[in-house]
TrEMBL record:
Protein name per UniProt: Nitrate reductase associated protein
Naturally occurring in which organism (per UniProt): Asaia lannensis NBRC 102526
Alphabetized NCBIfam families for the sequence: nitr_red_assoc
InterPro entries in the cross-refs: NarM
C-alpha cells in the first residue's frame, strides 16, 4: 500500500492539530493501520513529546507498523488510565479503493451543497487525503472541515 509522508498536517486541521491538542489525520491513519483505537483522552495523557513521536514515527512498511504499534501500546500502558483498545471496525476499503468514490463522501458533499469528487479526482488523491475525506464525511463532530478539506485538496473552487 502506498501511504504518503507520515507526518503531514493539513491546513484545515491547523487550528487544533498544529498544537497536537487533537489527533491529526496522519496519526489517525497510522492508528487505523496498526488497528488501535485511541481516545482523545489517551492522546492528551501521553504528553506533547510523546504525541510528537507518534506524529513523526513512520508507519508505512510492515516493519514500521510493528514498531509504531509497539511504541503506541507502550505509551498507552505507561501514561494512560484507559487500556489499549483494538480497532474492531476497519474501513480500509473505503479510502484504499482509489477506483470508486465512497458513498459517505458523496453523501457529505451533497449535504454540504458541493459537487463530490469525480472518479478521476478521487483516484488522483493520495491515500492520506482519501482517508481524511472518508473520516471527515463519517464524523458527526468534524464534518465542518469536510468542505475546507475538499478545497485544500483542489477538489473545489477557492471562490466558494
Amino acid at each position: 500500500m502506498n501511504v504518503p509522508a507520515h507526518n503531514v498536517l493539513f491546513a484545515f486541521e491547523q487550528d487544533f492539530a498544529g498544537t497536537l491538542r487533537c489527533i491529526p489525520m496522519c496519526v489517525r491513519l497510522k492508528l487505523d493501520l496498526v488497528r488501535i483505537k485511541m481516545s482523545l483522552r489517551q492522546w492528551s495523557q501521553i504528553g506533547a513529546d510523546q504525541r510528537r513521536v507518534l506524529l513523526d514515527l513512520p508507519c508505512t512498511t510492515p516493519e514500521q507498523q510493528h514498531v509504531y504499534r509497539d511504541t503506541l501500546v507502550a505509551l498507552i500502558e505507561r501514561h494512560c488510565d484507559e487500556p489499549v483498545k483494538e480497532l474492531v471496525k476497519h474501513d480500509d476499503a473505503l479510502w484504499q479503493d482509489a477506483g470508486a468514490v465512497p458513498e459517505c463522501v458523496i453523501a457529505q458533499a451533497t449535504s454540504d451543497h458541493v459537487d463530490p469528487p469525480s472518479c478521476d479526482s478521487w483516484q488522483a488523491l493520495n491515500p492520506l487525503r482519501r482517508f481524511a475525506l472518508v473520516k471527515l464525511a463519517r464524523s458527526k463532530h468534524e464534518n465542518e472541515n469536510f468542505v475546507p478539506a475538499m478545497r485544500e485538496f483542489g477538489l473545489l473552487s477557492t471562490e466558494m
